[in-house]
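Cross-check.
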Amino acid sequence: MRKVVFRGMKADEKRNRVLWCSIAVVALVIALALSLKGSKGLQWVISGLTVGSIYALVAMGFSIIYASTRVINFAQGEFSMLGGMLMYTFSSQVGLPAWLSFILAVTVVTALGAGFERAVIHRMEGASVVALIIVTIGFSIFIRAVAKWIWGTDPVKIAAFLGEEPLRFLGASIVPQSFWVFGFTAVAVILVFLFFNRTLPGKGMRAAAGNPDAASLVGVSTSTSSLLAWTMAAALGAAAGIIIAPINFAAYSFGVMLGLKGFAAAILGGLGSAPGAVVGGLILGVLEIMTAGAFPSGYKDAVAFLIIILVLLVRPQGLLGKPEGEKV
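Predicted model, tokenized:
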């Protein structure tokens, strides 16, 4: 018992060291940008944190599903795309208030995620992980095709929640929608933390993720855990797509790159770790925007894929993830 605890403590200490070293490196990059570029560097940081917050929400969806079912849901980006497109439909075409459009859009996407889990994932219990991943890829292609048929190929604009007049801060511009992005991300992180650490269903999901057989013996339903995971991931994805849509135009193809960036953030932070998803998303967002500022903007999309390669080579479990087979 002492050996197991000791190994777990050493693993936690190592993860903490890696995390703080990574944060120190990013902080150094930010400090250099601020000192060398001044207000332009501050603009990069603010824009990076805004984009990174969205990546964090998408990455949390990836991590929640993976932690509960060991499935990588490649339709996560399409949940975000659907959230944005449905928000446009309800608010701009139907004419509903923004708050009601938000609730309806998130509800529809959440129901779609839960329905897919019950109709497909639940029925494929016992199937290989590869088969389940292929199914999610097919689901994402189907959603994208339907969205293209319904809304067409032209991007659509959603009105900002607090107006579009930018605010000035130390020479940098901050669009009011960024405050919604920061605020919602903070609230979502807190709620997810409280759910997994203070509620019985959340603790049951953690138990089922750690040891499904043992959890089932004490009455924890792995089927219910899977349903809750897909429901939460769909809701997070939809909300992410809605709150970023006033900054970036929404379109049927919007979810592809957002899903890949969210996946990269989840890999960086540690797939299956919700706190790691947040850290990974913020780091990726800042590095991506700084790359776009320092180099031709076409290179910024390569940052996410470069991070995936480097993390898989150097630290496959990510910053806050646990190596496969680690016991604590």
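The first strand starts at residue 167 and ends at 169. Residues 2-37 form the longest helix (36 residues). Passed to J.P. for a second look.
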